[in-house]
Amino acid sequence: PLALGLYTVNAVYGDTITMPCRLEVPDGLMFGKWKYEMPNGSPVFIAFRSSTKKNVQYDDVPDYKDRLSLSENYTLSIKNARITDEKRFVCMLVTEDDVSEEPTIVKVFKQPSQPEILHQADFLETEKLQMLGECVARDSYPEGNVTWYKNGRVLQPVEEAVVINLQKMVNKSTGLFTMTSSLQYMPTKEDANAKFSCVVTYYGPSGQKTIQSEPVVFDVHYPTEKVTIQVLPQSSTIKEGDNITLKCSGNGNPPPQEFLFYIPGETEGIRSSDTYSMTDVRRNATGEYRCSLTDKSMMDSTTITVHYLDLQLTPSGEVTKQIGEALPVSCTISSSRNATVFWIKDNTRMQTSPSFSSLQYQDAGNYICATTLQEVEGLQKRKTLKLIVEGKPQIKMTKKTNTNKMSKTIICHVEGFPKPAVQWTVTGSGSIINKAKETRYVNGKFSSKIVIAPEENVTLTCIAENQLERTVTSLNVSAISIPEYDEPEDRNDDNSEKVNDQAKLIVGIVVGLLLAALVAGVVYWLYVKKSKTASKHVDKDLGNIEENKKLEENNHKSET
């Protein structure tokens, strides 16, 4: 490298400066010497080396004491380079006839420390020019320059908005520079979270270089321009019994800490922090809610609707009625929105609402009237009606001769609630028959059945009793030798009566055939036969005359 056409050596501060003698060693060399030139041009010799005696001598120069080294090829080395080493050094080779000289310029460079932003502002306020901080880079040589950046872009000076002042100070003992750049800045709201940094530009042995500081973010204060109110938790619907919190916020920094809350029905605002809580809200809490700054300068509002659902069931609870009575039932609702109503009986959803013009036993059960608001989660109501249908015992008795002709089945069909207890007695002894079998008790009805083989005409008595009444019914039964079909057997569990149409049809066919055969006979014989046939029918229904007399006597005794 050349400086003004001269050979230049660039050295780093604190390193060793190496300066070769750029002259060819002539024949007859006596010695070589190094000197440097003072600013006024006068020379100062610092090193000598003889070519014959091979000895080296260093002049008594305080700045270079114990720092110099001169090699055999007359290369001069200076340890621990200093800023004061920036001089014009000259290599001299001397013969008897000539003195040759070659100058060398020494340049010393020192990299500054990483710049730091000191004296930082605690916060920045919009619309106010204030000191943001000072960027300091120390111990540089030669002096460097400082540039400010915001979000990676250079900050250019702007009157009354961006003011930059750079100061450079030199240490007299070391000759090193310290650069201090102060930044006065007027921030805007958009400068929140902006990154400020500074960069020092300096020169080194290989050219221009830069070092950047760590970025700094400042808290920017700006006034509130808008107030916002919101309802917490953020749910689309609110129902009675919920707890809600009103939260008011301002978009300033720092945000406001106190607000005025305006509640429906209240003329004055309620001073509070940024939240106002309400517990177990009722429907009368529906309305417009507002909040503002404490100076009432800004305001926001929201409307709250508290959904409700009322259900009235008449009658409700446990209700006891008598069979055949009417029972009007009504389930009415009042709600903030259209509600869905449905009925459940004994855990089964009903297709229609219950209506009782004449109560039956099957109407008894547990009824639930339920309603819900589908748009409002968790808002549902239900009430229960436990209907009890009572009735005094009702009895109907039937008899039938079994197909084996060896026994007869007597059935006592019983209705009533509470379930009646059934007892059987037989005329004469009055003893209780314990071999009766009962069907399942369904909808207030069941049957008690016994099988007997009477050798003579008897009277069976069925006694049904519950808390309401005791009912007694008797039935005459002929001896086993006399078939009886005057009453059809109840074959259904619900005790409904049914006529054996097939048996009647067979009897009709048989009678028809007999009549056809008798027409071919003698008219008299036909007359006699018809009389006998009629007598048989009478006997079949009533028994023979003697048996009927015995039955009448027994009935008379029983009545007595």
Automatic annotation (TrEMBL):
Coiled coil: none
Topology of the protein relative to the lipid bilayer: Single-pass type I membrane protein
Localization in the cell: Cell membrane; Cell projection, Axon; Cell projection, Dendrite
Protein name (database record): CD166 antigen
One GO CC annotation: plasma membrane
Gene from which this protein is expressed: Alcam
GO BP terms, alphabetized: adaptive immune response; cell adhesion
Keyword DNA damage: no
